[in-house]
């Protein structure tokens, strides 16, 4: 709609104003505004729109509503006319010499698609598959039923309805699936229809939910209704639900979005700046975008030569294209790309449609025998032979040795994997040979995989069952060219298993394959070059000189897409820009304004488009996707600054006085020895700098001089030098920057440069890390993370996206033992370039643990008798990640482990201890049994502290439900008692901690603690905001009163009314409404309904109070027993029944165990399992079901 073509622009103006214009009318004369601009500026709609925009942003539908009163009846489509006006405004703005008509930006919020379509059954909202909990009501999300989108699908495990329908490690032995919907009698939505009668039960929807599911409490008129899904459907679980995007291509939506943006722009305007906060994601997206852009380029090249390729088989076609590219490609970017072409073709050929690796709607390859005379045609083959050849093609079991002319790695049994170029995803496929074998095993090493067509075949079991193993093998052998039959389609190769044994793999000849690219209408290579897209990364992982280079390329238009972390948010000129893409919603409106403000600068049309791509897994993103106005025009809290703050000034005095003596330990020793000589002159210098705002002279000669000896002892025992020590202990001002980053080093580059990293690590910890060491590290540095992230993101063995590439964290990284345990800490880790994309923490089974060790001198107080608050001047927060197995021994008594790269270090524990100022808060767990109470209160408190004291979202971090560990002193008995007491305390109490994230002491937590319940404190601020939120649309809580970026992980439990109730009680404003823990279910011994079951004369019979139900056992004994129990339990149920007791006859004692253990037996057939699950489903009416042997009565 925003057309800037001169002729079209003038016509559009004429239609809107009713006047005719020519090109000369756009020229300004004598400093006057051009006539079209004057006419448009005086337009009633334009003036009304301008006035409305002064009040805040408008949705496009609201813009249309502004227009409607200014349109005569029947004058046309208001939507189309509104677009025409916006186009006209941007058009005439280009010719304004001074004030423009309207400087406007369009803000578009899009949501990523992931996983499966999900439904919150409680509030009827739909979500994509990334989230586990509904961000509106806090209930678990269930996958939508493919056959009826008003229903969901869930899994029943004991008495819990779980959201994940596939098998999970913590599932009980027997689970079953159900349809889920809302009782139409409890829902006003007319589209809700009742589930069929029969195996259908209703449950209480008010039961609390978790990220796994919801507890089932039967209620005859409950809103939640379940119905069994036939067990026959379990073999094809994906057919029950609605997938939104392939898990293998989770980036595809974003890739398509970026490509659409860029292709829509003229070449001169084709630039897109993307912002993202997560460095791993930034690196991964750049890698994937580069891969997508390269793939698109190669497919465009194939399209250009489609006619020539149609006459060639695959090897000759690829050779033809490679020759053409060597002639046509001229730029540096093209030359770099064409080296990837054979590798790209090899990967594309290896992507099997059967495995979902190739998701093209139009295939790139087709099966076609060579056209030369003498070759066998498909029509000449038997039906089984054709099936075999087509199977080889569908499996992509193709002989790839011909790629050896371009990629030596493809040939040879020990060839290495492809490491170069723009290709990132599935690089292992480039050098992999995938074939067919006739035995029971076939994968050997990294390069050779195969699918079995032997007796134990799985993937192609249907072919084996239909024709028989022997016949299939005969068909394959009849199609193999042994060197004398070139007309046949298959070849065989012997793959060495060891020095004495080999196994035969079979492959389809590549000459039986043709390329079938789409016809995109290109006339010459220039058309292809015009479409070539290029992207790059701008983050702290990238060297400064490379960042400067990419900035220049982006400004000059030689780079189409630049993805940046907040390193590019401020202070860097990247020229005129029309579009900005935000990948993920920024933490605050201030961040959004800064990034969005990058677009539109210096442009004559005064127009910009800002697109926010919301994550499907983030509660924070989901919140603002539903309420974009709160981000676009949200409240920007001004930062606090007090130039007379003595705590801050003191740090600056320390830095001024000690600046020349902190390079290393020896330098500080020299200061300590000469302190009496040096300090008088330093006191005078400090007084000259700070003047009357601080008595620097007295402080330097008094407290600071006396402190030197204590500091000297700390320096001597520190793992780091004095400079790092003083930053870590808040002696020096640090403005929120972290100094404890854990760094990843490019190990290969270090080896090439012959840098002794082990010795460097030792020097680093001993405080003699000099300028040269730091320079070496800067050049070798790949990336780094704060300890709170490093302990799980950089766990040895994981593959991580960093600096635009993929690195595996080396097991051989030098470590030190964290004090008080076996955990390993790392100042830096070795990174090895990886073959494929990041594992995302999936390389091994991990367990994370976090706990707090309190400050022994902490100050505590209790508020209103239920909430405990403690200020820790320096507590310890411990972060640990555990993996399974046994760790290698540490040899030689050294703390440096030289383990060969790639060896799995089992039972490895990685972790860090942070010493931080913090406030911990405790709640009695029984009273705060509903998570919403504690979480809502903590979220509102976090929000209020940051707003009251002018803190940024990153200044404080919140951890909820963190254990408190108090180290015991004395013997092992003391330790055991302390551990038992801690476990009991954690069972009774919920602990949370708010801590100074950077550790630089800029967060005034002591003041927060002392003022907490006063009229100027955070609780009063929270209560006022919760009572009267400035956001008129706020219901369950917004980012002005209840929510914060720190608490968005708990968003499902955040509730404004719950927070207000707790805060109000603590301030004495209202009563407390406790959420008490639910009592245990009533046992079967508390006056339960009794059923007796027996087996006699071919009938399974249940009896209760003289009435009986009998089921014939002719179709199966257990089937009959289960059916009788199901019908009997339903027949005797009455409103209010809680327990069911089943008395089992002596002739069927095994039934007692089956009922009590809730599983039908390991050898049960499908029909028995179906009958048993129906019985368990009927049992859900009762809070407790227990079976006893008749003999035990």
Describe this structure in words.
It is a single chain. It contains 36 helices and 39 strands. The protein is globular, with a radius of gyration of 35 Å. The longest helix has 26 residues, at 279-304. It folds into eight domains: 6-102, no CATH class; 118-248, no CATH class; 251-260 and 272-291 and 534-636, Rossmann fold, CATH 3.40.50; 311-318 and 347-515, no CATH class; 646-728, no CATH class; 739-843, no CATH class; 846-895 and 902-1078; 1089-1192, Nucleotidyltransferase, domain 5 (2-Layer Sandwich), CATH 3.30.420.10.
SSE blueprint and pairings:
Elements (H helix, E strand, L loop, with lengths): L5 H12 L17 H7 L2 H11 L5 H8 L10 H16 L10 E8 L6 E2 L6 E2 L14 E4 L2 E10 L2 E3 L13 E7 L17 E4 L9 E3 L8 E5 L23 H12 L8 E4 L3 H26 L1 H4 L4 H15 L3 H7 L2 H10 L14 E3 L15 H13 L37 E5 L10 E5 L8 H7 L1 H10 L11 E7 L5 E7 L4 E3 L9 H7 L3 E4 L5 H13 L4 E4 L14 E5 L5 H8 L10 E8 L4 H8 L1 H5 L13 H13 L6 H9 L1 H16 L5 H22 L4 H7 L13 E5 H6 L4 H10 L4 H10 E5 L1 H7 L5 E4 L2 E5 L6 E2 L6 E2 L2 E6 L12 E8 L5 E5 L3 E17 L25 E16 L6 H18 L7 E5 L11 H17 E8 L8 H7 L6 H10 L28 H11 L22 E8 L2 E6 L2 E6 L4 H15 L7 E6 L5 H8 L8 H14 L4 E6 L4
Parallel strand pairs: 1-21, 11-19, 11-20, 13-14, 18-19, 20-21, 22-28, 35-38, 38-39
Antiparallel strand pairs: 2-3, 2-4, 4-5, 5-6, 5-7, 6-9, 7-10, 8-10, 12-17, 15-16, 22-23, 24-25, 25-28, 26-27, 29-31, 30-31, 31-32, 32-34, 33-34, 35-36, 36-37
Helix pairs in contact: 1-5, 4-5, 7-15, 12-14, 13-14, 20-22, 21-23, 22-23, 29-32, 29-33, 32-33, 34-36
